[in-house]
Amino acid sequence: MEKSGRTLLAKIWDQHVIARISDDTDLLHVDRHLLHDLGGSRGLLDLKSRGLTVHNPELTFATPDHAISTARGRAGTIKIGQELLAALRVETAASGIQMFDIDEPGQGIVHVIGPELGLSLPGCLIVCGDSHTCTHGGLGALAFGIGSSELTHVLATQALIQRRPNTMRVKFEGKLSFGVTAKDMILALIGHVGAAGGTGYAVEYAGSAIRDLPVEGRLTICNLSIELGAKMGMVAPDEKTYEFLRGRPYAPQGDMWEQAVRVWRQLPSDPNAHFDREVLIDVTKIIPQVTWGTSPEHVVGVDGCIPDPQAIVDPARRAAVETALDYMGLKPGSPIAGTPVDWVFIGSCTNSRLSDLRAAAEVARGRKVAPGVRAWVVPGSETVKRDAVAEGLDKLFTEAGFEWREPGCSMCLAANGETVAPGQRSVSTSNRNFVGRQGPRARTHLASPASAAAAAIAGAIADVRTMER
Amino acid sequence: MPKPFNLLMAIAAPVMRGNIDTDVIIRIERLVGNSVRGTLGKWAFGALRYLPDGSENPEFILNREPYRQAEILITGPNFGCGSSREGAVWSLQEMGIRAIIGSSFGDIFFANCFQNGILPIVVDKEIVDGLAAEVALTQGAGRIGIDLEGQTITSPTGKQHRFEIDPRRREGLLEGLDEVALTLQRDHEIRAFQAADRAARPWIHFARKSA
Questions:
Q1: Do A293 and A258 belong to one domain?
Q2: Partner A contacted by B177 (CB < 8 A)
Q3: Are A244 and A316 in the same domain?
Q4: A143 and A35 in one domain?
Q5: CB pairs < 8 Å spanning A and B
Q6: Does B125 score more than 70 pLDDT?
Q7: Above pLDDT 90, what percent of chain B?
Q8: Residues A207 and A293 in one domain
Q9: Which residues 400-429 of A have a C-beta within 8 angstroms of B?
Q10: Residue B197 located in a structural domain
């Protein structure tokens, strides 16, 4: 029998093995360790308290994003947020770690700045104390979130003990319809396989619809890997990846760039590579998606209806849907479109890049946010902000009645005092519609940037295809 | 460094809702700060445990006797999905939880448990449901036994179920090992890897901002 080929995952994994710990577990080298304000200083202080030092400060980078305010002048940053920021400055300086500080190019949501600066590269092993680290897999990196203990381990050793995951390939085939985006593709996938469908797997996204996506769309796809249970998601690098990275501040230059690209071209999975699970998605059937419940798997097409628990046979699933609908304050069986909203949030590591803001702006241009709706646009990084301002997007959004903010995580996780009030309903371009995620008893509907802008204008969940030009 | 784990015979609380995420286990604002350890036990499952006015929700199982004394959780599928926040494990630990039995767990949460001396056990859903049903029949009085060395769970009526666990992780729990110290014993290997890798992939090791 012919030996099966190797996957993208296996090629990157094997490259990083320092030592074999057991049959399925290896000590892996970490190429990039990204720190943020919520866990970065805690990790550095933990290290210090053990009498240890940072093993490779030159491979470690930091930026504040989680706990800072996104108001102009960072007004209203909560006291503990200020303390965490101060501690991050002191501890990174003491350890010789590069930090991208507020108002500097390079500051931003950690998963936006890694690719933007060229810190995240194909074939790279990247970790960060944040589950959405899988985002960087969109460049062909092996990237995943870690907890605080593992974070300390990486600071101390520049290495991590990991069990080799199973492999899943998701092929998205066909051409996207008008008004359908990367966000809709990945939400549709989560609806199909469920929030635990990828648990224990590293997912490789492939197929013609992935090849057709620009890099920023691939980052959005990989970002939501964790929402289907997979802590790693990746897309093989190609010419689009190299074009995206060429000339980025920390990407290799000159001969070293040529050398790197030659190595990266070897990374894609071999044609005869074996995957433990294969999923095929026909993207021509996908329409704009919106969530109705409290798990990303609670998702429907925007022309669909809120599920009716009475129609569900399995008692556990019926109870889960009832609980979710009760929390969300939704009527079973009614169309999801037309549900009135109080808040719209355009931002987060999922959807705050320039292409996301352009897509939202295209819908908002020349229109007005509906009365009674508060709509925020929070660019993902200082560079995204500056680029958007240079294109006049800030002005366009402001004239339409959106609030234009400073870069940060903001209302995606509500760790910074920026929350949706109890009982209020939000359409959000972020990644989690969990109970209380955007604030205690806040109700979140996940959607694409274009769909979120449409909801802001309509004052209700709306089908963006009727509003796009 | 986690405390060693050995035998446990304890009250178990079934929390069977599926997809309980780490945001539900501990709200993010409880984790904003550099010294939150020791403050989290009373905030575990806050959204389920307390009513909007801050009083205890009498319907929630961990607010009822004898489940208040639970040291084991029996959980629905995909428990601990979502955010990587290790504070979720800290909060459970601070409320006295030492083991969690479920059919599947969020990958990052699962790894974080071992780092803190909490044993997450994966067994078939039928076994999980059976344990929850037996516990419910005794109104929570029936204790569950866990023998990590023997890799068995004993139900309140004495049924034994074997569970699988990565031998390295089992040893880590039994001995209370310090993983950082263990890896640092391999520092010569890490440095040798880096020396070779600097030649093979210089762009990784000499990341410099271009002008």
A1: no
A2: no
A3: no
A4: yes
A5: 191
A6: yes
A7: 90
A8: no
A9: 413-415, 422
A10: no
Q: Which residues contact A120 (CB under 8 A, 6 or more apart)?
A: A32, A114, A126, A136, A139, A141, A143
Which B residues in the span 124-143 are in contact with A, Cβ-Cβ below 8 Å?
Answer: none
Average pLDDT over residues B130-136: 97
pLDDT at B2: 60
Looking at residue B177, what is its pLDDT?
A: 86
Any domain includes A50: yes
Domain that holds residue A100: 8-264
Q: Give the alpha-carbon dihedral of A84, A90, A91, A92, to 10 degrees.
A: 100
Nearest to B32 among A145, A161, A415 (CB): A415
Quote the tokens at residue A280.
């095929």
Between the CA of residue A299 and those of A291, A412, B11, B205, what are the distances in Å? 4, 18, 37, 43
State how many domains chain A has: 2
Same structural domain for residues A224 and A304? no
Whole-number pLDDT of residue A425: 98
Residues of A in contact with B186 (CB under 8 A): 18-19, 27
Q: Is residue A3 part of a domain?
A: no
The pLDDT value recorded for residue B1 is 54
Q: What is the CATH number of the domain that holds A439?
A: 3.30.499.10
Tell whether A270 is covered by a domain: no
- Total structural domains within chain B: 1
**Interaxial angle between packed helices A215-223 and A110-117, expressed in degrees from 0 to 180 and rounded to the nearest 10:** 150
- Mark the ranges of chain A whose per-residue pLDDT is less than 70: 1-2, 468-469
Torsion of CA A38, A43, A46, A50, to 10 degrees: 180
Mean pLDDT of B123-140: 97
Q: What is the pLDDT of residue B210?
A: 64
Residue B195 lies in a domain: no
* Local structure of residue A176 (DSSP, 8 states): P
A434-454 tens-digit pLDDT: 999 999 999 999 999 999 999
Q: pTM above the 0.95 mark?
A: yes
B184-202 tens-digit pLDDT: 999 999 999 999 999 999 9
How near does any CA of chain B get to the CA of A276, in Å?
17
Interface test with A, best of B116, B183, B188, B209 (most A CBs within 10 A): B183
Q: What CATH number is attached to the domain comprising B103?
A: 3.20.19.10
Chain B residue with the nearest C-alpha to that of A413: B28
B78–A196 CB contact, under 8 Å: yes
* Interchain proximity B29–A415, CB inside 8 Å: yes
pLDDT, residue A216, reads 98
Does a structural domain hold residue B67?
Answer: yes
Establish if A130 belongs to a structural domain.
yes
B contacts of A349 (beta carbons < 8 Å): none
B192 within domain boundaries: no
CB B21 within 8 Å of CB B83: yes
Tokens linked to A119 = 């810190």
Instruction: Read off the tokens for A206.
Output: 């492939």
- The whole-number pLDDT of residue B91 equals 98
Same domain, A194 and A337: no
User: Distances in Å between the alpha carbon of A2 and those of A5, A61, A178, A268?
Assistant: 9, 44, 43, 19
Domain carrying residue B44: 7-178
Looking up tokens 């907890």 gives A147
A224 lies in the same domain as A352: no
Query: Are residue A318 and residue A195 in the same domain, yes or no?
Result: no
